[in-house]
Design a protein that fits this description.
With 1462 residues, chain A is α/β, with parallel strands linked by helices. Chain A contains 44 helices and 52 strands. Helices cover 35% and strands 14% of the residues of chain B. Classes of the chains: A alpha/beta (1462), B alpha/beta (453). The interface between A and B is large, with 51 and 42 residues.
Chain lengths: 1462, 453
């Protein structure tokens, strides 16, 4: 594995994959288990990936029982009986001398632990079977045989083997890897692809290799430095997904180490610490902890239930005992939050589980002859339907457990009940825990100084009052803004921003999905715990001695209750974090030292709640930044090993926004009392519930913030540090924010102290009574600098309206001068001096403008006029405009109003086969700059008939874009969506849009490996969309860093040549373009500037529909005011291109291609002083990757097409008929649909397919096409269904009942716009999510069914999971025997059927029975009982049905509108 | 942010003016404001733009969106605080400023639709006075430093107020018998009643400003006792009309006439005369207004440059720039003639001016005469309102080293908002200078953080 270099850091690599196991229920070991599992693995190969060297896989492996027969026959020395010896599989260096050292070390460890050394076996390998890169890094693999000391029982021997391994690993360092060391299980794995695994290891093909269970895994890593070590399985688990809370989990584990104790381990425990081996992946770390918990005495299910608990709050269906278990264990450890599918085995128990969100697929079958097979996909083993006893799927939070000793599958409820009943956990919890709400009330403490004075002292501004606080209290919501953030980074600002603003929220993109905290509130929890934690390896009533805080934002009286707590169980101590003004800047350092010392003393004195307070602020005392105090104490205590002795609570006048509270919690606070914010709110908004509303709004914002990162519980977010610091010095971060990435250096303690003193000085001398105006959210003279200000906007508009080149030059000079002075990172750079060339040798502007595109702004956010103006302009210059998420009027497909880039976003609005087939580029939007990690919402009143027609929805019905793509929860899912899009349009290039954050480079590498042609790295500052202000300001980082990281990572990986790189984010001038090119961009995107050229005045009211210049509004009256013309935009881009040419000439570069990636032509501008005085260091940004000369720095070759050999080629050729299908046949019907759409074929074609279909069966299926699948299907059936018909049924001779078994996976009919689909059997989670027009019948669905649905008809004649119909705003759903408690009624009502409904349901059931032979449907029709059905009717939809919007408007009427109006 | 979408429903309303036929009968102010409820409606039209061009268009940087919103929310007192934050004398600007803010208002992209900013401004401050919210704000403590200000026009007074409130001892020297400069003597009573000016001056006095009226400073040596000196002496040298007949009686500078009307000496009268005002600006208009009120036989205002277009010429002065378009002054609404592209060739008469002779020109520089367009008109009083060339010589040449020049004296003749803005900026400069030059605040421990602020 490579080390960190420049902006690339291997710590940000992600992986994901296919996982599965094969087991014999009777526990009989056989070689067939191995061969079957290898078949499973081979059939999931498409889920894995290869790097730049196509032969080298990202990793594959297998975990089995110890194959005693093989080992005994081949060891070459005698072995004790089975169970009395263990095998350590060792990856050793090629270098013989070092290898011998490590071997000696291992042997020493064995002897040291009193076990006997039996001998070494060289694991035979066929080196040539591995890829070139893999061979280069291949370890020597040897197995060390260890004999058990006399008298040790099996568990104790297993523990000793663990100690041996840890002792050796600790002594050796990174070059010794021990993939397994056990008397029970063994691991074979490597940097291999699935098919290479058995070829590389002849052992796996040996008939003597027998096992009753085999766990297999193939890996997809975002990078291409996959290491042998990081292949799965680990010792106990293989994992598909991501641990979002990893940093917090690792910190907390480290904190817990000091108090670990175990009778079983005794003194050995010290030898195994640290528990977590550094440098591992998230899976490796999870495995490390799990292993310790299990070896220290907990069962594997128990340990998993602790670490990855299901969502249990507010669930009536969770048994009392189990509830008690979860509550108790929450006192021991925070959750390791997924998305995760974890397959595990200890050799006897084998199983799999999903985390609470259930975002990974897992399908299993049990056969009539005693096999159990589980895998990420169905159909990985060919088992005739007649031999299938049961087909099922993993479910959120559920345990799928096979006990080989008992020879049976243990149901989830039984397995959990067994664990929960071990001890009276619920009773322990009930007895020992204390709820804050139950503590005696105390009088709140009054403010010690006048309100205004404190506001001044804490740097309150007039806008804080108006923009942040008033809306919180008045509306219970955070304020919304538009048009991005054009103010300087905190470190570049001259206004000494508060410390919070130096922290940028991380967010999930691609490798892990964000969560919808509103619609999927059932998984969210904002409860936190305060108190001392106890030994993780033990359990006792005392462990539950925790104070439970339901809401982390404390009112004053709650804080007093806590401070004066006197239950005997808790003792709070308040620590003051102010310092004397008289000590000046130096005082801060002393204050921190004092604070640490006082914290130590408090803990020594028995305190278990530390209240960090700045109440002492006054004339003589100034407060340090509360975030500094909190994180500094947190890390001090972690280092001291005492962190778990107390919880941290912050009492501060400083926090007053979602971001401030989020950072405090993210850096270790369990709760925050923002007393000054609360006092301000009470004063500001004259209503009784102002304080309550403000607290609720902050809490809501907090949940949104954590869900951006895919984290669902606040207790897991606590201390998780999911932030990137931008502009803080390495020293400051290392000491006080340990582990936080901070890549461009920045300010330190002295500057923070100066800022605090300067704010304090505003309040004392007591003079200015008004709060300062800062102009952060809207421009104000003399306030914070905005790149778009009255001067730059006017100059740009004048330049394209007659002012011409001189005015453009004035504009560019103003922008660049500003930028250089204070505003952007690129402003701190300059071009190196070079010999110029004549301007006429430089490539013409007409060529350069082809690299430009406009940003993704939907029709809906923009007016039709503005949207078409941009499209026409871009087509005229050969650039590209982008539809945005909102479809495109088919009228535009054929003319110059067509947007060449068609976006595919999470809502899939307007995405059907026509749309896709009419694109030059298909862009998957993973995130957007204004609000990465969040979804969107278009309120019903903005959905006029035209907008609705283009989005295939109903006028007047609100539309929700979910935070994640529900078909992308991980990198291999993205690969699948790319494949789906390639099928829908084989000639369009596929692009993936990302937003810059730390680690974006490794994601981009993953994107390249997924086969995308193009990746867009957006800066945080661009973004035109409406978004909560905290997201606009605090999520994401500048494109300069993200782009440089992307370029460096791609080049280091040898992937840069395969993929175009584009960047955007407040680009304005030729200088910006050239800097972007030099940092690695082939292409550039612009959004705000061309909008301004058309007349936008940065009103920032896009979300209000009142744009006075007709740009961002649907109001017909205002749209008439639009004065933009394509010529304006064309002229602007030509000015920019001419500007680029002049710079190219001065750099002596004639071709734009030769600019790309030439970071050596940039240098930090030493002439500007202010940034250097603030400690900024651009070395990493300007680092040229360390690669051989001639390595491509730009895109030079096309990606290989994945479509050869697709089944669809045969379907197209045959025109109909019967075909076999298997899970490796993905997106069946996709290419076919493209074919008929492209050629305008309108004939009907029918196909029947037999087998297990791969993912995305029937995706984008075009009208006239019918696919019948006999067998079953995986995830994403009918994705984007565009008018075709699907029918799925089991084989006639199936040995199971169709309606009780799973026939289709998760996320069925996602974004379907038309057509019909019939499922004889159960489907997984999120059936018909975002369906906007398809009709379907299904015999049962998992959780979150019909989520975000906006149209269509769904009939469910079986069970529904939890959270049914969440966020559903349109369409109708009919459910048989609905469990109303499982329905999320935020947006829907439940009603009986009327006559028309009955007709609909009957009609669909008749067709269902006919197409699938459904016995359930036949029975229902035979004894018709409409009363058993419930109609799920969205409120929005009802309103429209009651009062249809006038059919006026400009557009055409959709099917749905017709239906609604009829 | 106002009421969402209100700008579509509520039309812009102009400030009510007294009937032109009636108002010429007296000297009282003729412009009023709408009732407060209607003004709230007007304020609701403001959308608090993300980039408020009005706020940029205002030389003072008035926080227009902020106080518009407060007025809409009926928080007049808070609005007054925000108004005073950037503007010492809103009752002056609310009456006398031509409102470049309104020209820059985003709603003015649809010409004629701007938010009625000026009217709201005036209403806020008028209400502030009416309610007694405007009180002296003397400093908590004095710094012990002293500043002399020469000139009591808007820039001098703004500078004085800023410095006094910051704790400096301020003495203002004024050669006229009352404070206010051109606002006091140049601007007619019917545009701003002088008791309003006096009321402000009283506030300044109560804040510690000492006014020495009727004292002409001729040399800086007279001010040696002060730690700093500010010269706010205006740009009072008028541009002359060098044509034959200039020397005739009855040919006067506009400011002489206006001063005389204010002092009511009657030395220069328009009553019963044919009055010709040379120059098409505001000063000229004020002459026209007075001439009407005196009962002139006829009033004609002539302008050198050509007639501008009726609406904003986008090629020349695109939004948000100040539009070079035809405006009809209040005075011409009251009567009189105007003519464009007119170059005066000479004046004639026997000792006293009787006729004015002119010729049409090309309408733009270099204003070439158009042959054959000679005309002559009766003229008993010719008032030259052609602008000012700069400050009177004497003091301003001595600026530097603690002597500051501000207002029109520094930037040339301009708007009252500029004068106030100048005065405020100069006050900051003076304080920075004094901070540098002297060991300042007693509390030395905190001094450097005060400076860092």
């Amino acid at each position: 594995m490579r080390g960190a270099q420049g902006l690339y850091d291997p710590a940000y690599e992600h992986d994901s994959c296919g996982v599965g196991f094969v087991a014999r229920l009777d526990g009989a070991a056989s070689h067939e288990t191995v061969t079957r599992s290898l078949t499973v693995l081979a059939n999931m190969e498409h889920r894995g990936a290869a790097g730049a060297d196509a032969d080298t896989g990202d990793g594959a492996g297998i975990l089995t029982q110890l194959p005693d027969g093989l080992l005994r026959a081949t060891a070459g020395f005698p072995l004790p009986p089975r169970g009395r010896y263990g095998v350590a599989v060792c990856f050793l260096p090629q270098l013989a001398s070092r290898r011998r050292e490590l071997e000696a070390l291992l042997e020493g460890a064995v002897a040291g632990e009193g076990q006997s050394l039996l001998g070494w076996r060289d694991v035979p390998v066929r080196r040539r079977e591995a890829g070139a890169t893999a061979q280069l890094h291949a370890p020597v693999i040897r197995q060390l045989f260890v004999g058990a000391a006399d008298g040790l029982d099996a568990d104790a021997f297993e523990r000793k083997l663990y100690v041996v391994r840890r002792v050796a690993e600790r002594a050796a360092g990174r070059d010794l890897v021990v993939p397994s060391c056990s008397a029970r299980t063994i691991v074979y794995k490597g940097m291999l692809s699935a098919p290479q695994l058995p070829r590389y290891f002849p052992d796996l093909g040996d008939e003597r290799f027998a096992t009753a269970v085999a766990l297999v895994h193939s890996r997809f890593s975002t990078n291409t430095f996959p290491s042998w070590e990081l292949a799965h399985p680990y010792r106990l688990i293989a994992h598909n997904g991501e641990i979002n809370t990893l940093r917090g989990n690792v910190n907390w584990i480290r904190a817990r180490e000091s108090q670990l104790a175990s009778e079983l381990f005794g003194d050995d425990l010290a030898k195994v610490l640290p528990v977590i081996r550094p440098g591992g992946s998230d899976t490796a770390m999870l495995d490390n902890v799990l292993e310790l918990l299990v070896l220290a005495g907990r069962s594997l299910p128990h340990a998993l239930m602790m670490m990855v608990p299901e969502a249990y709050r507010g669930r009536p269906d969770v048994p009392e005992e189990l509830l008690g278990f979860y509550r108790f264990h929450e006192c021991l450890t925070e959750a390791w939050d997924g998305p995760a599918a974890i397959a595990f085995t200890d050799g006897t128990l084998v199983g799999a589980t999903l985390d609470r969100n259930g975002l990974r697929p897992g399908r299993f079958i049990e056969t009539t002859d005693g096999w159990v097979v589980l895998a990420s996909e169905a159909g990985v083993l060919d088992v005739p339907a007649s031999q299938v006893r049961r087909k099922g799927r993993l479910q959120p939070g559920r345990l799928f457990l096979v006990d080989l000793a008992q020879g049976r599958i243990v149901p989830d409820a039984e397995a959990k009940a067994g664990v929960a009943a071990r001890r009276p956990y619920g009773e322990w919890f009930a007895r020992r825990h204390v709820r804050l709400a139950d503590l005696p009330r105390r009088e709140p403490r009054p403010l010690a100084e006048p309100l205004r004075r404190l506001q001044l002292a804490f740097g309150y501004t007039q806008e804080d009052m108006k923009v942040m606080l008033a809306p919180l209290a008045a509306n219970g919501e955070e304020a919304v803004g538009s048009m991005g953030n054009d103010t300087p980074l905190a470190v570049l600002s001259d206004r000494r921003p508060l410390l919070y603003s130096y922290f940028k929220q991380l967010f999930a993109q691609v490798t892990n999905p964000p969560i919808d905290p509103i619609r999927e509130a059932i998984v969210m929890s904002k409860a936190t715990l305060v108190g001392a934690e106890r030994n993780l390896l033990d359990e006792s009533p005392e462990h539950a001695r925790q104070l439970v805080i339901d809401d982390p934002v404390l009112r004053d009286e709650e804080l007093e209750s806590l401070r004066q707590v006197s239950t005997g169980l808790f003792r709070a101590q308040t620590l003051d974090f102010t310092w004397p003004v008289a000590e000046g800047v130096e005082g801060l350092e002393h204050a921190l030292e004092r604070l640490h010392a006082e914290a130590d003393e408090a803990l020594a004195g028995g305190a278990n709640v530390l209240v960090l307070s700045d109440r002492a602020v006054g004339r003589e005392r100034v407060a340090m930044p509360s975030l500094l105090a909190t994180s500094s104490v947190h890390h001090h205590l972690v280092r001291a090993g005492t962190r778990l002795q107390a919880g941290l609570v912050v009492e501060s006048g400083e926090p007053r926004s979602v971001q401030s509270v989020a950072t405090l919690i993210g850096y270790g606070a369990s709760a925050v009392n923002p007393y000054l914010m609360l006092a301000t709110v009470r004063d500001l908004v004259p209503r009784d519930d102002a304080e309550r509303r403000a607290i609720a709004a902050v809490s809501k914002g907090l949940l949104k913030t954590i869900s951006k990162m895919g984290i669902s519980t606040l207790s897991s977010y606590c201390g998780a540090q999911v932030f990137e610091a931008v502009g803080l010095s390495a020293e400051l971060v290392e000491r006080h924010f340990t582990g936080t990435p901070s890549r461009i250096g920045g300010i330190g303690l002295a500057e923070l102290a100066e800022g605090a003193l300067a704010r304090h000085a505003r309040a004392y001398p007591e003079r200015d009574e008004l709060l300062p105006v800062v102009g952060l959210y809207a421009w104000r003279r003399g306030g914070e600098h905005h790149q778009w200000n009255p001067d730059t906007i006017a100059l740009l508009q004048h330049a394209v309206r007659g002012g011409g080149r001189p005015t453009y030059q004035q504009f560019a000079a103003t922008v660049n001068a500003d930028s250089a002075r204070r505003s952007t990172l690129r402003g701190l750079l300059r071009f190196r001096e070079r010999d110029p060339i004549p301007l006429d040798e430089v490539e013409p502007a007409a060529e350069i403008v082809k690299r430009f595109s406009t940003g993704a702004m939907s029709l809906g956010s923009l007016s039709r006029e503005a949207h078409e103006t941009l499209a026409v302009a871009m087509n005229r210059i050969g650039g590209r405009s982008n539809t945005g998420e909102g479809g495109e009027d088919p009228e535009r497909f054929g003319d110059e109003r067509r947007s060449r880039i068609k976006q595919v976003a999470s809502g899939r609005f307007g995405v059907n086969i026509d749309y896709l087939a009419n694109a030059d580029e298909l862009q998957i939007k993973m995130a957007q700059g204004a609000k990465p990690g969040e979804g969107g919402q278009l309120p019903g009143h903005k959905v006029d008939p035209y907008i609705a027609s283009i989005r295939f929805t109903t006028p007047g019905v609100g539309l929700i874009s979910p935070p994640p793509h529900h078909d992308i929860y991980s990198i291999e899912d993205l690969k699948q969506l790319i494949y789906d899009l390639r099928c829908a349009n084989p000639v369009a290039r596929v692009s993936v849009k990302l937003v810059a954050e730390v680690g974006v480079g490794t994601i981009a590498a993953g994107v390249a490996k997924c086969g995308a042609d193009h990746v867009l790295v957006s800066g945080h500052d661009g973004g035109t969309g409406a978004s909560p202000i905290s997201s606009i300001l605090h999520a994401g980082i500048p494109w300069e860093i993200g782009l440089a990281e992307t370029q460096q990572t791609l080049v280091l990986n040898g992937l840069r040549s395969r993929i175009f790189v584009q960047t955007d984010g407040q680009l304005k001038t030729g200088r910006d373009v050239v800097v972007a090119a030099l940092l690695g961009a082939d292409e550039m995107g612009f959004a705000t500037a061309p909008l301004i050229a058309t007349g936008c005045v940065m009103m920032r009211a896009c979300h209000l529909n009142t744009c006075p210049v007709g740009v961002a509004t649907q109001d017909p009256e205002l749209r008439r005011r639009f004065r933009g013309k394509p010529e304006h935009v064309v002229e602007y881009f030509f000015h920019v291109a001419d500007d680029v040419r002049e710079i190219m000439a001065s750099l002596g570069i004639a071709r734009f291609d030769d600019l790309v990636g030439r970071v050596d032509l940039l240098e930090a501008d030493e002439a500007l002083s202010h940034w250097r005085t603030r400690g900024i260091d651009l070395t990493h940004l300007l680092r040229a990757p360390d690669v051989p000369a001639g390595t491509p720095l730009r895109r030079t070759e096309a990606q290989a097409s994945p479509l050869q050999g697709a089944l669809d080629h045969r379907l197209i050729a045959a025109g109909g008929g019967t075909f076999a299908v298997r899970n490796t046949d993905r997106t069946v019907g996709g290419l076919l649909s493209h074919h008929v759409t492209r050629h305008g074929l309108r004939e009907e074609r029918r196909y029947e397919l037999h087998g297990s279909a791969g993912q995305s069966f029937g995706a984008w299926l075009a009208p006239g096409l019918e696919l019948t699948l006999v067998g079953d299907a995986n995830d994403y059936v009918g994705k984007g269904l565009s008018g075709g018909v699907l029918a799925l049924r089991p084989a006639e001779d199936a040995a199971f009942r169709a309606e009780e078994n799973v026939i289709a996976g998760n996320t069925v009919l996602y974004g379907a716009t038309a057509g019909r689909a019939f499922f004889r059997g159960l489907a997984g989670e999120r059936f018909a999510v975002r369906n906007s027009g398809a009709s379907a019948v299904v015999e049962g669905v998992g959780d979150h069914g019909c989520e975000y649905m906006t149209g269509g008809r769904v009939v469910v004649i079986g069970p529904t999971g939890r959270n049914f119909a969440a966020g559903m705003s349109g369409g109708l759903v009919y459910v048989l025997d609905l469990d109303a408690a499982a329905c999320n009624t935020q947006t829907v009502g439940l009603e009986p059927l009327d006559a028309r409904d009955e007709e609909t349901v009957r009609g669909l059931l008749v067709e269902h029975a006919a197409r699938t032979g459904s016995t359930v449907a036949s029975a229902l029709l035979a004894s018709w009982a409409p009363a058993r059905f419930t109609k799920v009717l969205p409120h929005d939809y009802r309103a429209v049905l009651d009062q249809p919007l006038s059919a006026g408007g400009i557009g055409f009427v959709t099917r749905e509108t017709e239906g609604a109006a009829a | 942010m106002g009421r969402i979408g209100a700008f579509k429903q509520v039309a812009r309303a102009e400030a009510p003016e007294r009937d032109p036929g009636l108002r010429v009968g007296d000297l009282r102010e003729f412009v009023g404001t709408l009732p407060l409820t209607e003004l709230r409606e007007q304020a609701s039209r403001c959308m608090e733009c993300g980039v408020p061009f009005c706020h940029n268009g205002c030389p003072l940087g008035n926080l227009i969106p902020d106080w518009n919103d407060l007025v809409y929310r009926d928080s007049w007192r808070e609005a007054l605080d925000q108004l005073h934050r950037t503007n010492n004398f809103p009752e002056l600007t609310g009456r006398l400023c031509p409102a470049p803010c309104e020209a820059a208002c985003v709603l003015e992209i649809e010409e004629g639709n701007a938010v009625a900013i000026k009217q709201v401004e005036r209403a806020i401050v008028d209400r502030g006075w009416d309610e007694g919210w405007i009180v002296p704000r003397p400093p908590a403590r004095l710094t012990g430093r002293s500043v002399a200000i020469v000139g009591s026009g808007p820039s001098g007074l703004a500078c004085a107020q800023q410095l006094a409130r910051a704790g400096e001892r301020v003495v203002v020297y004024e050669r006229d018998e009352a404070a206010g400069g051109l606002v006091r003597f140049g601007v007619p009573e019917f545009k701003i009643e002088k008791h309003l000016v006096e009321r402000r001056v009283d506030q300044l006095r109560a804040e510690g400003v000492e006014l020495r009226l009727g004292v002409e400073v001729t040399s800086l040596e007279e001010l040696a006792e002060y730690d700093a000196v500010v010269l706010a002496v205006g740009a009072r040298v008028p541009r002359d009309l060098p044509v034959p007949g200039r020397e005739l009686d009855g040919v006067r500078f506009a400011m002489e006439y206006l001063y005389d009307r204010q002092r009511r000496t009657g030395a220069i009268s328009a009553a019963g005369k044919h009055v010709v005002v040379v120059g098409g600006g505001d000063t000229g208009a004020d002459c026209v207004g007075h001439a009407h009120r005196e009962g002139a036989a006829s009033v004609t205002q002539i302008e050198l440059v050509g007639e501008p277009p009726a609406s904003r010429p986008d090629d020349l002065t695109p939004w948000p720039a100040w539009p070079m378009k035809l405006r009809t002054s209040y005075a011409l609404k009251e009567g009189g003639e105007r003519d464009f592209s007119v170059s005066t060739t000479h004046l004639s008469g026997a000792g006293r001016v009787e006729r004015i002779h002119w010729q049409r020109n090309s309408g733009r520089p270099p204003f070439e005469p158009v042959p054959g367009t000679e005309e002559e008109h009766p003229a008993d009083l010719v008032l030259l309102a052609m602008g000012f060339t700069g400050p009177e010589p004497g003091l301003v040449e001595q600026a530097g080293g603690g002597v500051f020049v501000t207002g029109d004296a520094r930037r040339g003749q301009s708007l009252i908002v500029w004068a106030i803005a100048e005065g405020r900026r100069t006050a900051d400069e003076v304080r920075a200078y004094l901070d540098d030059a002297f060991v300042s605040v007693a509390d030395a421990g905190r001094a450097k953080y005060t400076a860092a602020r």
